[in-house]
Design a protein that fits this description.
alpha+beta, seven-stranded mixed β-sheet, two-stranded antiparallel ribbon, 9 strands, 33% helix, 26% strand, globular
Length: 170
């Protein structure tokens, strides 16, 4: 991990521990967002503000207990809806919650509605970035998510860069 970008080493160490913690307790999780791009691209492509993982809503209390048992502090943001945040040292973790509707579609339950995920996002893909394994959303779903037009110019720029990093994976 010596050739990673600033702050990436701490995030990768935290992700390795998180993977082990959740896997050893039988909790399904999926890495998404920028770090999922890096795992699919096979390299660290940019600096990341946080780790983004999704877990089943019914595992939320168990995940909270596991994280707090590993000294992750619950640091909810005002107005959270469908996710919550934790911090350990300088590492920020955002945990999104998942549910499945009667037709089998996966979504994030929100106070007013639902947050949609690309079809077939959640499988059993475990990808390795040198020395660290993570369960990640499928590359096709990641590309679909990063292809959505965003209102925020900074997020749009990150999404365009992420799509370029994934270009050879299509």
């Amino acid at each position: 991990m010596s050739d990673t970008l600033p702050n990436a080493t701490d995030q990768l160490v935290a992700l390795a521990a998180l993977h082990h913690l959740l896997q050893s307790h039988g909790v399904d999780y999926w890495l998404f967002g920028g770090w999922a791009v890096d795992f699919h691209a096979g390299r660290v492509t940019r600096t990341h503000a946080d780790l983004d993982v999704a877990v089943w809503s019914h595992d939320g209390d168990r995940v909270a207990a596991l994280l707090e048992g590993q000294r992750w502090a619950h640091t909810p943001e005002a107005g959270e809806d469908g996710y919550t945040c934790y911090e350990s040292g300088d590492v920020r973790l955002e945990v999104a919650f998942l549910a499945r509707d009667h037709e089998g579609c996966v979504y994030t339950p929100l106070r007013e509605g639902r947050g949609e995920w690309p079809d077939d996002a959640f499988g059993d893909d475990v990808v390795e970035l040198p020395g660290v394994q993570a369960r990640v959303i499928r590359v096709g779903a990641l590309i679909a998510d990063k292809s959505v037009a965003r209102d925020d110019p900074l997020t749009s720029a990150k999404d365009r860069a992420d799509l370029l990093s994934l270009a050879d994976r299509q």
